[in-house]
Structures are given as C-alpha cells and as structure tokens.
Design goal:
The structure holds two protein chains of two kinds. Chain A has a domain of 69 residues. In chain A, 60% of the residues lie in helices and 0% in strands. Chain B is α+β, with helices and mostly antiparallel strands. Helices cover 37% and strands 20% of the residues of chain B. Classes of the chains: A mainly alpha, B alpha+beta. Chains A and B meet through α1 and α2 of A and β2, α9, α17 and α18 of B.
C-alpha cells in the first residue's frame, strides 16, 4: 500500500516537472516571438517614416509647380483662381430616374450584385 | 510514555515524617523543593533560548549565502534585457515631426549613418585616403593621409551621408572605416517656411548616437517638446498652411525680382485667432543646410534674418489708421469731421508736409484715403502724447511681440526716448516709431476683428485666446470702411481683387541712413491689407525693402506702385486656397458675360 503511494507520488512529481519544463519552453518561445514582432514593428515604423518623408519630398510645392509647368501642354494645370468657383446649380447631377431601355430580348446579367472576386 | 520524569512532590512524605520525628521544621523542606523546581525551570528556558538563537543564526547564514550567491551570479553573467516587458511605444524614440495645419509634413527624421575612422585599425592609410577623397569630393586626400598617420586614434569624417555614399565608403573595404547610426532632421520642402522652422544640428555626439538639437525658430522654441519621448508620436501642429505659404513665397519672390528689392516680407494672419497662416521673409535659406551666421556686414542682410519678425522698420502711413481710430474712439472726431490740412507744419527745424497738395481741408475719411501727413498730425495733436502712447501700447507696438520663435523676443520696437509733441505728430504717420511687420499685422487684426486684441501664434489650436477689447465695434467698423475706400478710391487702387473686397493702407517710409538722417532714394514700402472687407477673415502685410518700379519714365517707389500690386496678386492666388469663394452682389457668371461684352 505504502509503496504504491510512493510510486504514484514519484510519477506525479515527474509529470509536474515535465509540465513545468514544457511551460518554460513555450514561454521562452513566445518571448522570442514577441521580441521579433517588436523588432519588425520598429522596422515597419522606420520604413513608414521614410516613406512619409519621401511622400512629402515628392509632393513639395516647388516640384509640383515645376511638373505642372513641364506638362502644361497635356494637363493645362493652372493655379486655383477666383473664377474657378462654381455654384451648386452648375453641377450636372444625374437625373432622378434613369430612362428604361428596351433590350429587345437580350439576357440581362446582373453584374453589380456580384463582386469581382470570388471569396 | 516512559520518559516523563516523576514530579518530585513539594512535601515528600518520607522526609516530612522523618523530620517531624526529629522535631525539625517541615516548611524548610518545602521551600527547598520549591527552589529546586524553579531552578529546573530556569535551566529549561535557557536551553530553549539557546536553541532559538542557533536556529536564527543558521537562517541568517543561509540568507547571507543566498545573497552572496545571487550577487556572484549577477556579476558573472552577461547582462540581458528583460524580454517580457511591454516595449511597444519605446521604439519610436525619435524627435517628433512638425506638420502644417492640414497635417502635411514640414520636418521629419531620416535614418542615416556617420563615418568615422579608427586609425589603429587602418590597413592602408594612403589608399583609403585617396578612395575617400573620390567618394566625398570636399575632402582632400593629402590632409586625410596626414590625419590618418598622425597621433589621433579617432577621426570623424562625415556627420551624415547618403546611402549611396555609405555604400561607396563601405566598398573601400578598409577595416578602419566605421559607421555609426545617425538620426537626421529632414525638411522635405526645402526652403519653404525656412525662417519659421529654423533648423537643427547635432548636440552631444557619440559613436552610436547623437542628439538632434533645434538651433533656431520653432525647432529651438519647442526643442523640449519635440524631444520628449512621451510625445514623440504626436507631431507638432503649426498654424501654417503649406500651399498658401508656397504660393505667397512664389509671388513675393517674383515681385521682389521685378521690383529690384533687397528683401521682402509677408505676414498672413487669421484675424480672430491670431494664427499665422503664412510667414515669409526673403531672401531665405535651406534649413537642411543652414548657412552659418554672417561674420561681417549687417546681420539684416543675411538670409537667416527674418524680416517679418526681426526686422524693425518705420512702417509709414500704415500707422495713420491707428491715430484716426483712436481719435474716433475718444470721440474727438467722426469720419465726416473736417480737419485743416494747410501746411507745412513747422516744428523747430522740422517741417511736416504732404506728398501732394490736397487743398485747405479734408474730412477725416479723406485724410486716410488720400494719406495726408498734415491731417493725421493735426488729429494726433488732439489726442496728445500720453494717450497716444497708451493706445499704441495696448495694441502691442511698444514691446517685443510674443511669438513661438526665439527670434521674436529680440525685436524690440524702437520708440522715442522722450515722447514729445513732435514725436506724437510723426508717429501718427509712421515715422519715429519702428516696429516689425508682425506688429503691424497684429494691430490691423484688431481693426479687422471688431476691436479685439489678438496674440499672434504659430500653433494651430483652433480656439481664440482670451478677448481683450481695445476698440469699440463701431470705431473698428468705421476704420475698416475707410481702409476699404483707400483701395476703391485712394492710394491703393491697384490692390482691388474682384470678389474679395480688399481693404488696406499703404505706407512708404524713407529708410534711415547710417548717420541717422533719412535716405531719399531708399524706402520701405508696406501694404497692410484686410480681406474680405465684408466679413474680415485675414490680415496680410506685405513689405518690400528698397523696391522700385522702373517700368515708368522715372523710378516709382511708393507702396501704391510696389507692395500693392504684389499684394493683389497674392490675394487672388491665396484666397481660393483658403477656401474663400468670391462674393459679388450680382451673380458671378452674369458679371463675367457683362465684362466680356463691354
């Protein structure tokens, strides 16, 4: 009876030791993982900052002005002037109801209801 | 069970009986036994206390050993950072960005590298020196070589460099060449708003890092805020508008070149909040490569000099409206009151005269519209020196203006030491008191917003500061009406911009020469304007240094020919950018057709 109890206790201790070891390994792995994530967040932030700086640099007013001047023939971009303001009644809104076309027996496929990509 | 000692009775029967038989005192036996028993208890207690002391001693020794072991372990092991801490925010320990009012970047950081040399590790000093001088064209191979072979073990080569340069230096392949990470301040818009931003340079420097320190402008004023790690994620939001600033700089630069001016300044302020939407001073510089302070010549000629904030000038007739507004506020005159303008006024050796002869008398309104010095001087004598000084003080003309730029505190207006009656007269038309264009803009903002003093600011806060009324609403409205008529029928007729109702006042002041007398050929031409007059939102002050229009038969230097047309061009460019739609009584399109039909 007593030896049986000893065996059970011994096995329990071994089992718990194994469990504790496992937990430790997992924790270490997760910590390493978190560290990697922090590093990649840091790198991503850095990249983002550089991209922002580059965006600001590419969009600096002087460069945009020069580009507008260079491409004047194609784009005809001018500085915003007072006479560029319009009134709301000058905007061409779509009519309230669309005219109905007789498609003459053509099969109508509803495209808009389906998304472009199957998901 | 068997170990419990037999308790000795106090009066053992055998001894008592034998003692009685001998006729001895039995109480003595009892006392003897009591004493014995007590002695036994004392012995027991002593043994117990000794045992406790022993246990305590053992525990202490164990603790000491544990601590000693821990200390030994700590001192022997490699240091590592705790890995389980939450370190999410600490990665962005960078200097905070500076953005404009719409969040567009004005200043940010970039990671780059510095290059240094450890001469003891150099394998081929001569070849390295030659190769380096090819990568960095400003370095001299001979001087590098003598530095490499000299006594010094450590040399900085470049504080910061581009990735291409770094790769090229890396390709040289000498183990003595070392790179250190550097964080560099970058102003992506180049010269734009250079004076406001100021610039940054390196403070304390080490191999692995260097402090970035603001050296001027906003960068210096808010150095602590920008470096605070707790706020490095939130950019500092300025009141400037990037596109408006760019447009004003462009137009002002064109105007400066056309008018052969030495310099120019412009201040655009929101009249209700005092927020500066644009602050321009030309010539300017590139804050990415900030020039050194001038060692010779006048400080005011350096591109670092901020004319709008640091330039203390006599601002001429733009001051007249303050004298008239105060006289109206005090009830001395009304816009229709007629004032004698026969002149010139003589005062000792000085005489005050007008640019043209405007006749015998003018109404107060016409004095502003035609810009009569004599008329304004007469009104100023009605006010008196003390009241004038107090009023100009309440508008902020006597003290350096507070602005979030270190440069502003040094620009103290020049006021007469003794405020005589002559000073009163000359100051009323803008001579004898020198202030910055920013002072002037602040004064005009008070007229434009209905008489409330505003504090200029470069930060975008959105809520106006505490209101301090300086002028009554009626007087401010009457003054604004006069300023509007200066543009429609007076000296600033070129300042009209269709649909935006510009109001303003010109000012042309002779520049004081080196000996203190006025130079006839050199003027400061200023136009202080308010738009739109029907609902004032912005004050724009444009000032040119030594501008002259040479298109006519003789050079024209008055502000009406120089600052005013440039201001009109600026307003027509920036008003749409500021989101102001033009307003005309008639529908806008009809007006266009009419004009084209005529």
């Amino acid at each position: 009876m007593r030896s049986f109890l000893y065996i059970i206790m011994f096995n329990a201790v071994m089992g718990l030791a194994y469990w504790a070891y496992q937990e430790n390994v997992h924790t270490q792995r997760e910590l390493a993982n978190v560290q990697d994530l922090h590093e990649s967040i840091g790198k991503a932030r850095n990249r983002l900052a550089i991209l922002r700086a580059e965006w600001a640099y590419q969009n600096r007013p002087r460069r945009l002005q020069d580009l507008a001047d260079l491409n004047y023939e194609n784009l005809q971009l001018l500085p915003l002037r007072a006479d560029h303001f319009g009134r709301v009644d000058e905007v061409g809104f779509p009519p309230d109801s669309f005219p109905v076309f007789d498609l003459g027996g053509l099969e109508v496929i509803e495209v808009a209801q389906r998304g472009g990509i199957d998901d | 069970m068997t170990d419990i000692p037999l308790r000795t009775p106090l009066r053992p029967l055998g001894r008592i009986l034998s003692a009685r038989a001998k006729g001895e005192d039995t109480n003595r036996i009892e006392r003897e036994n009591i004493n014995k028993r007590q002695e036994g208890e004392i012995e027991q207690t002593r043994v117990r206390a000794q045992g406790r002391l022993l246990v305590l001693g053992v525990v202490f020794i164990c603790l000491y050993f544990a601590i000693a072991l821990r200390v030994a372990l700590l001192s022997a092991s490699e240091p590592t950072e705790p890995r389980s801490q939450q370190a999410g925010a600490s990665i962005v320990a960078q200097r905070a960005d500076i953005v404009d009012r719409r969040g567009r970047i004005l200043a940010t950081n970039m990671d780059t590298h510095s290059l240094y040399v450890e001469t003891t590790h150099l394998v081929d000093p001569k070849g390295t020196a030659q190769a380096l001088s090819k990568v960095f064209l400003d370095l001299d191979a001979k001087r590098l070589y003598s530095a490499f072979t000299g006594k010094r073990k450590f040399l900085w080569i470049k504080r910061k460099m581009s990735p291409e340069q770094m790769q090229a230096a890396h390709d040289i392949g000498d183990p003595g060449l070392r790179f250190g990470p550097r964080e560099m301040r970058l102003y992506p818009n180049g010269r734009l708003a250079a004076h406001v931003l100021g610039g940054a340079s390196f403070g304390r420097e080490g191999v692995h890092a260097a402090e970035v320190v603001g050296v001027a402008g906003i960068e210096k004023t808010f150095d602590k805020r920008l470096r605070d790690p707790g706020q490095s994620g939130q950019p500092l939001e300025l009141s400037l508008d990037l596109s408006v600033q760019a447009a004003i700089e462009q137009v002002l630069y064109g105007g400066m070149k056309l008018l052969n001016a030495k310099g120019a300044a412009a201040v655009l302020m929101e009249v209700h909040t005092g927020e500066l939407v644009s602050l321009v001073s030309l010539p300017d510089f590139d804050p990415n490569n900030r020039p050194n302070l001038p060692t010779k010549g006048q400080a005011a000629d350096s591109p670092l000099f901020n004319r709008a904030v640091q330039g203390v000038y006599e601002l001429g007739s733009t001051f007249k409206i303050f004298a008239v507004a105060q006289a109206m506020e005090l009830g001395l005159v009304a816009p229709e009151t007629v004032v004698d303008i026969r002149g010139p006024i003589r005062w000792g050796k000085y005489r005050i005269s007008d640019f043209h002869n405007y006749g015998k008398e003018l109404s107060v309104e016409d004095i502003i519209i035609k810009s009569s010095n004599i008329g304004t001087a007469r009104i100023a004598t009605m006010i008196g020196a003390e009241r004038q000084e107090n009023f100009l003080g309440s508008l902020g003309f006597l003290e350096p203006i507070y602005l979030e730029m270190v440069e502003a505190s040094g620009a103290k207006p020049l006021v007469p030491r003794h405020w005589s009656e002559l000073s009163t007269m000359t100051i009323s038309y803008g001579h004898g008191l020198s202030a910055t264009p920013l002072h002037l803009a602040t004064g005009y903002a008070t007229i434009a917003n209905g008489g409330i003093k505003v504090m200029p600011t470069l930060l975008h806060k959105g809520d106006p500061k505490e209101a301090n009324r300086v002028l009554s609403e009626n007087v401010a409205a009457a003054s604004l009406n006069m300023l509007r008529r200066v543009v429609t029928e007076g000296t600033a007729s070129m300042g009209e911009v269709n649909g935006y109702g510009v109001a303003g006042k010109t000012g042309t002041a002779d520049k004081p020469g080196p000996e203190g007398n006025y130079e006839k050929e050199k003027v400061i031409a200023t136009f202080a304007s308010i738009f739109p007059a029907y609902d004032p939102k912005y004050v724009l002050v444009v000032s040119f240094d030594e501008a002259e229009d040479r298109t006519g038969s003789e050079p024209r230097r008055t502000a009406g020919w120089t600052a005013v047309p440039v201001t009109a061009e600026i307003i027509s460019r920036i008003a749409p950018l500021l989101g102001l739609a033009p307003q005309i009584e008639k529908p806008f399109r009809n007006d266009i057709t009419q004009a084209s039909n005529n």
